[in-house]
């Protein structure tokens, strides 16, 4: 029976092939203009140094996560400042409408959750990734025989 590999060992193999360590992971150039995204990038990389699960192959997902995080924070700050409901004053009276930052925050939060799941940023996500690995290990032996 084939030996299953842990996410850490798979990541380690990719990193050896790519010659990249966590210390060498840097934000992409386009992100450097956004200090909130850059700070989040550094926080995530620093927290993953101990378990060694990040490599340059995760850079795009990590950058997307950090970009969504930065925009989410801006939307939350706008909502805190201006409220969930805005009032438009017109010649026919006042009209209340939902602050667009509330809807944008929802979009960015979903992007963050999607990227988080792919990279295992939360404990729950890491458990889900481990369960997927276990499921792959429990392949049907009879199906494997039929394929041979």
Could you tell me the radius of gyration in angstroms? 21 Å
User: In total, how many domains does the architecture comprise?
Assistant: 1
> What is the helical fraction, as a range of percent?
55-70%
Order of helices and strands: HHHEEHHH
Q: What is the number of beta strands? A: 2
**Span from first to last CA?**
14 Å
Number of helices: 6
Estimate the global geometry from the Cα principal axes.
elongated
Q: How large is the share of residues in beta strands?
A: 5-15%
Order of strands, widest sheet: 1-2
The averaged pLDDT comes out at 79
Q: Spans of 5+ residues with little confidence (pLDDT < 50)?
A: 1-5, 13-19
Main pleated sheet: 2 strands, antiparallel
Overall SS class: mainly alpha
């Amino acid at each position: 029976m084939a030996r299953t590999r842990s996410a850490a060992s798979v990541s380690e193999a990719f990193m050896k092939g790519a010659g990249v360590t966590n210390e060498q992971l840097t934000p992409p150039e386009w992100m450097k203009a956004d200090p909130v995204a850059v700070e989040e990038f550094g926080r995530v990389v620093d927290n993953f140094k101990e378990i060694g699960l990040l490599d340059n192959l995760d850079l795009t997902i990590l950058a997307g996560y950090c970009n969504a995080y930065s925009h989410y924070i801006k939307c939350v700050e706008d909502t805190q400042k201006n409220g969930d409901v805005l009032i438009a004053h017109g010649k026919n009276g006042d009209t209340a409408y939902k602050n667009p930052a509330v809807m944008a925050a929802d979009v960015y939060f979903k992007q963050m959750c999607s990227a988080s799941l792919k990279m295992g940023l939360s404990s729950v996500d890491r458990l889900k990734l481990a369960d997927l690995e276990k499921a792959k290990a429990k392949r049907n032996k009879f199906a494997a025989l039929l394929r041979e």
